[in-house]
Write a structure and sequence with these properties.
One of its GO terms (molecular function) is ATP hydrolysis activity. Its EC number is 3.6.3.20. With 352 residues, this protein is an alpha+beta fold. It is built from eight helices and 21 strands. The protein has two domains: 230 residues, Rossmann fold (3-Layer(aba) Sandwich); 105 residues, Beta Barrel (OB fold (Dihydrolipoamide Acetyltransferase, E2P)), CATH 2.40.50. It has an eight-stranded antiparallel β-sheet with strand order 15-20-16-13-12-11-14-21. A six-stranded mixed β-sheet has the order 6-7-8-3-9-10, sandwiched between helices. The two termini are 38 Å apart. 39% of the residues are buried. The structure holds adenosine-5'-triphosphate.
């Protein structure tokens, strides 16, 4: 049982706030992903859990015990870093065994534990090699095995895939997902890659500038972004956001009229919709939607992405892969009220 509790954690350096009032309970066995752009405070949050950074205020509890004053080695957490951090002079076997040695675990059990961890990450054929003679993906798997071998209470992973090329990232991601299913160990995973977050997480914490913006399952965050920051950070392409006015349930902006929206709202708002939710018309004007000229066309293989301009901003709409048009041609797409996300024009907070 290893529940991790972060109680109103702050991290400040002088006047600079790295992390502000981070307050969350991570239940036993949860795979939690901290997601956000560079500098938002994800690594700092994780380093505080590991004990590599001291919280300025607030309490960190692991398994019900306050650990603020415990050394990293006494917290029973295992970390996997972006840089792998392997010992170059040791073989793969020795690297994986290392945590058992430093923790004085009965040597009679080492071989079995190392072999089991190596098997889980499919490294049994590489145990005699040095890290220098492995590919990046294999090195990262050694780092994973070294974290697994001591059966920690909590796994902390800091961008473990970011040094791998795109293809390896996908296969290693699948390996991590499978491992986490097998091991059922509470995991806190840091990334700036929203696809990684969406595919791996039980819950995602979206952060920006030291603040938690939203905590939710990948589906909640995708379907109900709490504000325009989350809306524009999650999804590929990002959600289209258009500034305009709403009155009597009708939203208007340049080239856009959308009907059937909440009649209680009035004034300036930001309206969002996802590229894949709009429906390209058969050539006729859209009664509720966008009527504009094609600005660019991108062939994606399984679809065609059309962009048009609204208030001088680009808006993307997904069309069939067979859709044929040209830059400058008229383009219409229906945007029904049901696919719209409405946000406060000033604060960016979700309205409905
Ligand atoms: P990245 O994805 O680039 O690693 P991050 O979200 O993990 O970013 P952090 O490393 O947690 O961000 O840093 C959060 C903020 O705190 C950044 O603005 C960073 O410059 C600042 N920061 C980190 N360490 C220190 C330090 N020792 N002293 C002062 N500021 C720091």
């Amino acid at each position: 049982m290893a529940e991790v509790q972060l109680r109103h954690i702050d991290k400040r350096w002088g006047d600079f706030i790295g992390v502000k009032d981070f307050d969350l309970t991570i239940p036993d066995k949860e795979f939690l992903v901290l997601l956000g752009p560079s500098g938002c405070g994800k690594t700092t949050t994780m380093r505080m859990i590991a004990g590599l950074e001291e919280a300025t205020s607030g309490e960190i509890l692991i398994d019900g015990k306050v650990v603020n004053d415990l050394e990293p080695k006494d917290r029973d957490v295992a970390m996997v870093f972006q840089s792998y951090a392997l010992y170059p002079n040791m073989s793969v076997y020795e690297n994986i065994r290392f945590p058992l040695k430093v923790r004085n675990i009965d040597p009679a059990t080492h071989d079995e534990k190392v072999m089991r961890a190596a098997e889980m990450v499919e490294l049994t054929n590489f145990l005699h090699r040095r890290p220098a003679d492995l590919s990046g993906g294999q090195r990262q798997r050694v780092a994973l095995a070294r974290a697994i071998v001591r059966e920690p209470n909590v796994f902390l992973m800091d961008e473990p895939l970011s040094n791998l090329d795109a293809k390896l990232r996908v296969s290693t991601r699948a390996q991590i997902k499978n491992l986490s299913h097998e091991l059922q160990i509470t995991t806190i995973y840091v990334t700036h890659d929203q696809i990684e977050a969406m595919t791996l997480a039980d819950r995602v914490v979206v952060m920006s500038a030291g603040n938690v913006q939203q905590v939710g399952t990948p589906t909640e965050i995708y379907n109900y972004p709490a504000n325009t920051f989350v809306a524009s950070f999650i999804g590929s392409p990002a959600m289209n956001l258009m500034k305009g006015t709403i009155e009597g349930g009708v939203f208007t902006a340049e080239n856009v009229t959308i009907t059937g929206l909440d009649k209680r709202l009035s004034g300036n708002i930001t309206l969002g919709f996802r590229a894949e939710d709009a429906v390209v018309t058969d050539g006729s004007e859209a009664a509720s939607g966008i009527n504009a000229k094609v600005f660019s066309i991108e062939l994606l293989g399984d679809a065609t992405m059309i962009t048009v301009k609204v208030n001088d901003e680009l808006v993307a709409i997904k069309a069939d892969k067979e859709y044929v048009t040209d830059i400058g041609q008229p383009f219409s797409a229906t945007i029904s009220a049901g696919i719209c996300h409405l946000f406060d024009a000033e604060t960016g907070e979700r309205l409905s």
